[in-house]
Amino acid sequence: MIWATVVQLPKLGKASPAFAICSVDKCGCVEDTTCGEIDDSFSTQASELSEEEPQASTAVASVVRVKPWQYVEAKRQARPTTPPSRLSTAQVTAAPVVIKPHPVSQVPSPVTSRAPSQVPSRRSSQVLLPPGPPRLTQVQVISDQAKPPQGTPQIAAPAPALMAIQALRAVRSWAQELRLAALERRIRQDPTDLGRRVAAAAQLCRLSELDRAVPHLEAVLSASDDAGFLHHALTSAVGPKLFYQLPKLTAKFMRKIALTGECMEEFGSRSEFEERATVYHLANALVILKAAGEMQAASELFEEAKELVWQGKRPITWQSIQQTPAVHISGLSHRPFWSPKPPLADVLQENYPAILQEFAQLQQRREERLAAYPNLVESGVWDMLQLYSGRRWNPGPCELMPFTAALLQQHLPSADVPYIHYNSEEVVVFLLSPGTKVRLHNGGSNVPINLSLGLVGCSGSFCEVAGTPQPFEDGRVIAFDDGSDHRVWHDGAQERWVLTVRVLHPELVADPRRFFCRAFTRRTCFEAWDAGRARALGCEEEKLRFRGPMAHLSH
Questions:
Q1: What is the total count of domains within the chain?
Q2: CATH number for 487
């Protein structure tokens, strides 16, 4: 059972009535806000507003987190109208509560009786009370029972979104508005305070009021040339989940960061086999613009990046707007879809029946799955299970698919050359649930080639690479460039599963000396190597030492 005390607050300005629940030391509903800070904000604003707004109505809301098949019993109880203290104790029993508990000695007895051995643990938290007469509701949730106890009046629980989650969001929104008003008052006093502008923008983004956040972010972008501060402002205020809702502003931040001297200097300290800050930020800006459909802005930024000059040379070697990864090895041929396919594709298709037979065992092991790349998921579920990654075979997943693992261990690693990223070669099983859409993205470099073997449920699933879609099919391999812009979606009725094997670009394997002799730092994003391995790659140390950065580039 769960007992919770819920207080309905008076309206504050135009805001809706909210519910405030907090622990003694820190509010469980407000991020980075102590009770003292809320009290300060409350005393400066809520007390003034309470004179203009009517007091809270006597209506009481039953707010608690339950599952749809559970039952809720509501009990109403009035409190005296005399001014209470700012904090009073709320009684809570049962373990799964959303607020931080602490022990108390007295707990109200439940409505329904229980045997002594079934008495739940006793917990308590604090309830923040504003000025004015509060209203109190106690809610009992009878959990894990198919039917309620006989003789107890019951009401069916509404959907969770209309209950605890909705109430806690209201609490968060209310408290953030209090803090936001204080921040904006200080910003009006000192418009040059960029730190408070970032804090205000972050609060507004959390409240989904992006139109109000944009002026603060634009002021920060205009006033600051500090790459670190701009990066902090963008990530703390907007964050990856909102990049696609503010694509042009996000791209402006990333462009300005990319063109700072601090970032440009990495053209001299890192080779093209590493993530250099300028290319990294421009690549992210481009993929966000393209994913959001802002192709005109993307084209302009792409042309600017290609014409960028550092020490008399153009260090960014992108050739196509549809292939703009953060690590671009110049000289590797670009084909969005590979035909003919690499030889390993035939191996996968020939062994499809055996792979499918043991896949059924893996399909049931949900605990082994990981979220693939959550920030790229527009809707649905995109999960993965990695058999081979980071140049190592993972024992757990390999035990579930022993034949597949043994088969691919004969082919990976494909060559004794450095990996660019941890997943330059990889074996992954990917799941898409029905209705899933994965945003446009690229794999971070133009080195891997993806070989995706459809396992089951591929009907209605598609992969679009560089603007050209191809359907997934059970038992068939799609081979495509991981560095090109691609997206996937699944309109089928069943879960779609594919086995993806990433292999190195065949030209890099065939002639490593041609490429790795340009790695003057002798390292990639994933690994480093010594002079001995450099010689094994065909790279003479003197050439590495004296060619210097970008010696292969034209003016």
A1: 4
A2: 2.60.120.330
Asked if residues 482 and 443 have their Cβ atoms less than 8 Å apart, the reply is yes
Q: What is the DSSP string of 8-21?
A: EPPP-TTSPP-B-E
Closest Cα to residue 345, out of 442, 449, 445, 429?
449
Return the closest-CA partner of residue 385 out of 266, 396, 29: 396
**Per-residue pLDDT tens for 404-460?**
999 999 999 999 999 999 999 999 999 999 999 999 999 999 999 999 999 999 999
SS (H, E, C) 58-104: CCCCCCCCCCCCCEEEEEEECCCCCCCCCEEEEEEECCCCCCCCECC
Q: What is the DSSP string of 318-385?
A: --BTTB--SB--TT----SB-SSPPHHHHHHHHTHHHHHHHHHHHHT-GGG-EES-GGGEEES-EEEE
CA distance 363 to 51: 61
Give me 554's structure tokens: 């034209």
Joined tokens for residue 453: 């073997």
Residue 393, domain extent: 343-508
Confirm whether pTM is higher than 0.85.
no
Distance in angstroms (rounded) separating the CA atoms of residues 270 and 258: 15
Task: Identify whether residues 100 and 151 lie together within a single domain.
Answer: yes
Phi/psi of residue 496, nearest 5 degrees: -100, 130
Residue 499, SS3? strand
